[in-house]
From TrEMBL:
<dbReference type="InterPro" id="IPR022074">
    <property type="entry name" value="DUF3626"/>
</dbReference>
<feature type="region of interest" description="Disordered">
    <location>
        <begin position="1"/>
        <end position="20"/>
    </location>
</feature>
<protein>
    <submittedName>
        <fullName>DUF3626 domain-containing protein</fullName>
    </submittedName>
</protein>
<dbReference type="Pfam" id="PF12294">
    <property type="entry name" value="DUF3626"/>
</dbReference>
Amino acid sequence: MARSSGTPLDPEQRVTCSFHPDRWAGPDANDLVIERLARDRFYASQFVTGTSNGGLTAFRGGDRFRWESALFGGAYDEADPDLRPKYGALNHRFRRAGASPRFGSSYIRLAAHTLARTTFCYPDSFDDPSDFGVVGACSLTDLADADDRDLLDDYVEAQVHGHVDLVTDVEALVLDPSYRGTSVEAAARDLPCPVEWHDGFVASIGEIRAHPDYRGAEIVSLAAQLATDGVLTPRLIGDAARTGGHHPQAIKQVWHYTARFGGPDPA
């Protein structure tokens, strides 16, 4: 990308693509995201799945379509949806929970060779960025480290181009430990890549209540309703999401609280 500048990336760095494995795989689906991954064996963009943990704008004329058109000079305007970029983040800080937990409790860690077909920007493409990078020239990590954005917003966005095959392009699926012994783990064991675990997200309602302005009093109240024994985990939030009894935006913001203020699972 001609707009990129800086030094080459550390070859040990990896792109992580975060998602919630226990959400329904589509608006009318009766299988989970992790079950769909195990069946299809590839990681698809919102243009294919119709699901997202950000905004649902992947359609002609939608925000995601316009951002991609601007970023890549219209190259994807008529492209096969599966060839459109898949979004993740560069885990240059080597965080065990992935580079961008804002978008999910679990993630796939892409293999090193995928860096050669990945572009980067900072900040998120939602923010109309002017700084870009590729594997051979990327100053974005310095920009991110010098910034004072919220912990959920301080990632270097990655756009992975082309098909993402779980057999050849993924080093591991990394799950939150709240899914141990659940149908999520069972489905994950059918994936053609190793399964690993990070340290986990556990947020106390006391900690969430200490930050009422982060997402608002209504979200704090909902978090308290969804908690068990005064704590929230990704599994509990996913159970609530699948009932359809709460607005998806509210569930998303409960997750933001958990990801932002939740510490590692003490177990």
